[in-house]
Amino acid sequence: MPNLPATMNAMVLKGHGDVDMYHWHDDWPTPTPGPDDVVIKVGACGLNNTDVNTRSGWYSKAVDEATTGGAYREVDDEDPTWGGRPLTFPRIQGADPVGRVVALGANADPDLMGKRVLIDGWIRDWDDPDNKDKTGYFGSEKNGGYAEYTMADRRDVAVVESDLSDAELATFQCSYSTAEGMLVRANVTANDTVLIPGASGGVGGALIQLCKLRGARVIAMASEAKHAEVAALNPDILLPRAPENLRVALGDEKITVVADVVGGDNWPTLIDMLERGGRYTCSGAIAGPMVKLDLRTFYLRDLTFTGSTVIPQEVFHNMVRYIEEGSIKPMLAATYPLSELREAQTAFIEKRHTGNIVVVP
Predict the structure, then answer these.
(1) How far is CA 238 from CA 39, 221, 222, in A?
(2) How crowded is residue 110: how many other Cβ atoms within 10 Å of its Cβ?
(3) 101 Cβ partners below 8 Å, 6+ apart?
(4) How does pLDDT run across 71-84, given as a tens digit for each residue?
(5) Cβ(105)–Cβ(113) below 8 Å
(6) Is 203 left (phi over 0), alpha (psi -120 to 50) or beta?
(7) Which residue has the higher pLDDT, 346 or 76?
(8) Where are the domains of the chain?
(9) Closest to 137 in 3D by CA, of 85, 98, 99, 183
(10) Are 281 and 185 in contact (CB under 8 A)?
(11) CB 153 within 8 A of CB 43
(12) Do the Cβ atoms of 292 and 268 come closer than 8 Å?
């Protein structure tokens, strides 16, 4: 096994709170692989909403506000993470690392050494891999990629053959796996017309591309200041983030699927756009988790609602295949040094960017 340094640079989360809960260390212990592990020298790591929400405590049922990234005083310490379980601190977050394998456990494939890999964000019990109750998330229940080195189970990594840079590859895992999981749950096909609010974000941009890959018709909603970047993804129709009258703006379009990570006050309007038999799929609520639903709309129109968090195993590997085929493209908004994670996450929360922000060790 190569001689790894005993310590490394890492940005470590010390507890729930604001961005000042991140502490920079230049002497954090480098991970040592167990039999089923691989150690990866991180080339880049993408930012995501899960890290923000976990750090701030937004997942707590005591919180009913939009995602802001600030600290929530009302947080119930028993349910401040995505899975409703307390988080163990200190914790290195970062679900989206890309890098090269530099050390192997005894059970790992020797051919992985030196290969560039992506990591599946979902940590599974490999004796019962499809059991959602036994899953964890990389950078949440296990240390992640906001460090010089990270460690993953050999079964959670996939070699990626691509000309894209590490920073570009780091935009994919969380956003595109989330989007693909939503579309799988909603069974989106070429017969669908999909309405996507929040289309300028990482998941929104991924949804556009993955819907188009299926042959579906795509109607994207985004701030007009970001329309030029969103238009580059070729949605069929591009609308403002909150049209004065969405039904008029849609004209004769028949919406069969709403793919949403926004929620908030505009949510009832989105549901009203669905055709009879339509589907709503959701994997986020950045504009607010508390929404108003008219149950008559739900049952009289025969609607189907699906939540999407833990994804099927094949979703991650399909994403890697899409990357290698060139079927999807990265949306890299900005790159920061890892030591400036606080600044990077602040920019991420402000949502003035289009696509994804990445940090580099």
Answers:
(1) 43, 6, 8
(2) 6
(3) 38, 39, 40, 112, 113, 114, 115, 117, 157
(4) 555 555 555 677 76
(5) no
(6) alpha
(7) 346
(8) 7-171+330-360, 175-307
(9) 85
(10) yes
(11) no
(12) yes
Token pair 């995505």 is found at 82
Amino acid, single-letter form, for residue 89:
F
The model carries a pTM of: 0.94
The per-residue pLDDT for 79 is 58
C-alpha span between 193 and 220 (Å, rounded): 11
Instruction: Report, in this order, helix, strand and coil percent for the chain, each rounded to 5.
Output: 30, 25, 45
Over residues 36-71, the pLDDT tens digits come to 999 999 999 999 999 999 898 888 777 777 776 665
Please, are residues 47 and 67 in contact by the beta-carbon 8 Å criterion?
A: no
Structural fold of domain 7-171+330-360: Quinone Oxidoreductase; Chain A, domain 1 (3.90.180)
Q: What is the pLDDT of residues 8-25, one digit of tens each?
A: 999 999 998 899 999 999
Instruction: Tell me: pLDDT of 325 over 90.
Output: yes
**Taking residues 132-156, what's their average pLDDT?**
96
For position 63, what pLDDT does the model report?
Answer: 78
What is the rounded CA–CA span in Å between residue 360 and residue 11? Answer: 11
What tokens appear for 330 in the block? Answer: 């990265």
Quote the CA–CA distance of 350 and 116 in Å, as a whole number. Answer: 31
**Bridge-based pairing state of the strands 274-282 and 116-119:** unpaired
CATH 3.40.50.1220 matches 175-307 = no
Short-list 29, 77, 8, 65, CA closest to 290? 65
Taking the CA of residue 291 as centre, how many other CA atoms within 13 Å lie in the half-sphere pointing to its CB?
22
Question: Helix/strand/coil (H, E, C) string of 279-323?
Answer: EEEECCCCCCCCCCCCHHHHHHCCCEEEECCCCCHHHHHHHHHHH
End-to-end Cα, the chain, rounded Å? 23
Q: Residue 51 has which token pair?
A: 């890290």
Three-class DSSP category at 204: helix
Separation of alpha carbons 118 and 138, rounded Å:
12
pLDDT at 32: 96
